[in-house]
Structure formats: structure tokens, C-alpha cells
Amino acid sequence: MQKFKAFLERKNIIVSFQRYGIDALGAMAQGLFCTLLVGTILNTIGSQFHIGFLTAPIVTIGGNPYTIGGLASLMVGCGISVAIGVSLKAPPLVLFSLIPVGFAANMMGGAGGPLAVYFVAIVACEMGKVVSKETKIDIIVTPIFTILCGVGFAYLVAGPIGSAASSFGKAVMWATEQQPFIMGIVVSVVIGVALTLPISSAAICAALGLTGLAGGAAVAGCCAQMVGFAFMSFRENGWGGLAAQGIGTSMLQMPNIIKNPRIWIPPTLASAITGPIATCIFRFQMNGAAVSSGMGTCGFVGQIGVYTGWLNDIASGAKSAITSADWLAMALICFILPAVLSVAFCAVLRRWGWIKENDLKLEL
Fold first, then answer.
1. Structural domain boundaries enclosing 146
2. What is d(CA 96, CA 48) in angstroms, rounded to the nearest whole number?
3. Same domain (yes/no): 158, 195
4. How far is Cα of residue 155 from the mean position of the Cα atoms in its chain?
5. Is there a single domain that holds both residue 226 and residue 126?
6. Domains in the chain: how many in total?
7. Are 124 and 24 contained in the same domain?
8. pLDDT computed for residue 79 by the predictor
9. Cβ neighbours of residue 243 under 8 Å, at least 6 residues apart?
10. Do 161 and 196 belong together in one domain?
11. What does pLDDT average to in each consecutive run of 10 residues of the chain (364 residues)?
């Protein structure tokens, strides 16, 4: 047993929740962002501003034409697998071999491909580490072994994992349609909390394919956390903190949350209110890329995703035009209500002594 532990340590194979549940999941979100999400943004910019080189197909694969953005989106499996490989400290030959592994796993996983890539990339990466630099022909053995293990594992599990993720996501979206008030609260609070925790709400939403009304509730929850923390901590952190949390990430508050968990109450209560407002009153939906549902106001990606969804609905005939009510809903749910509600709740907790001076101070 000691020899086995020593071998794993030498290969930098660390079986832990931190490595697989936090580091890898966070990397998955970055891989998603740099491929699927950026591709969606480029396509939206190109179509809205009539930019020729962004709308013109640059290559045809299997009879399907792809723009620059389309190609970026097509590489989502590759992006996720390489990002996970980096987070797991993969040696170069293992890292590069994860490119075809990720592509294969995503294609085999179907609608739930991103989640399939997550599991397959972890297994392929760790298996590749096992043989890395163990032979004199490492440049041949390591890539072949990594690819065969990865694609073979994907062949066995990618389909079932993808189907399960897709089915669960559809169940959540169906439940939100049936019970918009209750599910509006549940989805908004859960995804919002996930955004502030050191895990990836974006990866969760992408893995489940969370769009539609449930996607709108997820956007509301994420915005409540980011905008809420940004405004309720303005007295401690000023404009720098407002920008860092409001268009960066509310995860910056995790050290303070650990010290005083009560500071998490205001934005979480705000999400419990804005979620059902989004689902019941405004029927606020995310019909863009599912990953955008878990981004909130980070780089305004959530809002870009909602806007892209509006355009998709118009193109499909499901929506006739973008109305003033749509813009009002976005302003209230994503910015105004999170700020007002969180500041109000925070003021009450400050008065009660639950939140004290500098409890929200960031080390910027």
C-alpha cells in the first residue's frame, strides 16, 4: 500500500474533492467559456453588426458550413478536456492527447456532452499520467495509451452520462414550467450559491443544458449574488470592489463568508425573491447557450446570453420582437432588484449586529 501511495504521489495523482470537484470543475467552466461561449458571442456580434468575416463560413465539415464562432463552439469538448488536464497538472504529452479524447467524448455524449467530457477527461488524464515517462519511447506510448483509454472509456460511459445529464436538465426545466414559483426559488438559490462557492455554476448549467425558464431563474440567482455582494459591500470596498464582484465574481467573498456566514444571507434572500419574479411575473428565459445561465453578470455574459436567446426566438418565430418589457425585466432581475434587496437586507443585519464593520472587506 505504501508503494502504491508513493507511486501516486510521484505521478501527481491526488484523489480528492478539491482536485476533482473544485479544480477540475472550475477548469471545465473556463474551457466552456473559451470555446462554446466565445463562439456564441462572436456569432452574435457578427450577425448583429453585419461583420462579414464573422458571418462568412470559413470551412465546411461533413457538409455543414462553420463560421469562426461556429468552429470555436465545435471545439467545446477539446477546450474542456485540455482545461481539466491543466488543472490536474497533466504532463505535456498527456495534455495534448486529451484534445481528441475531449472531442470524442463530447460528440458521443450528445446534448449532455460537456458532463461526459468532464468525467472522461479526468479518467484519461490520470491514466495517461500512470504511463507518462515510464518507457524510453514515451512520445509514442503515452499519447496512444491516453487516447485509447480516454476514447474507450467515452465509448462506454459518454452516452449514458450525456443522456442522464440531459434528462435531469429537462426534468428541472419541466418542473420549472409546472411550478414556476417553487422552482424559481430553488433554481435561483441553488445556482446562485454555486456561483459564489469555489465550484462552477456555469459548468453545472452547461452540463445540465439548463435553459428556458429554469435558465432565467439561474441567471436571476447568479446576478443576485454578484450584484448583491457588490453593492452591499460598497462602503467597505468602493468602486474597485463593485467592479471586481459585480462583473468579476462574488467568489471573492468566500474568505469573509467562512469568517462570518451571515453575510451570505442578504444576497441569498434576494435570489429567493428575484427567482420567482423572473419565472412567474416576467417569464424571463435564457434561450442562449446553457453555460450563460450560470454566469450572472460576469463580463455581462448572462445578459449577452439572454439577448442571444431573444434573437434565436425571433429567428425561429417563437418571438416577434424584443420589447421594452424584455429590457425592463432584464434591468430589474439582473441589476436593480439584486442591488436594492441585498442592500436593504444587509442594512437590517448590520443594525442587528449580525454584520459588523469590515466583515465584507476584500483584500484587493
1. 2-168
2. 36
3. no
4. 25
5. no
6. 2
7. yes
8. 95
9. 230
10. no
11. 84 89 83 82 82 92 90 92 96 97 93 87 96 94 97 95 87 93 95 83 84 95 96 94 88 88 96 96 91 87 91 89 94 97 96 93 79
Instruction: State the cell numbers at 219.
Output: 441567471
pTM: 0.78
Q: If we measure between CA atoms, which residue out of 178, 174, 204, 209 comes closest to residue 191? A: 204
- The grid coordinates of residue 258 equal 467562512
Q: Do both 25 and 144 map to the same domain?
A: yes
- Looking at residue 240, what is its pLDDT? 92
Domain co-membership, 11 together with 145: yes
Q: In the prediction, which pLDDT does 251 show?
A: 84
Q: Are 267 and 232 in contact (CB under 8 A)?
A: yes
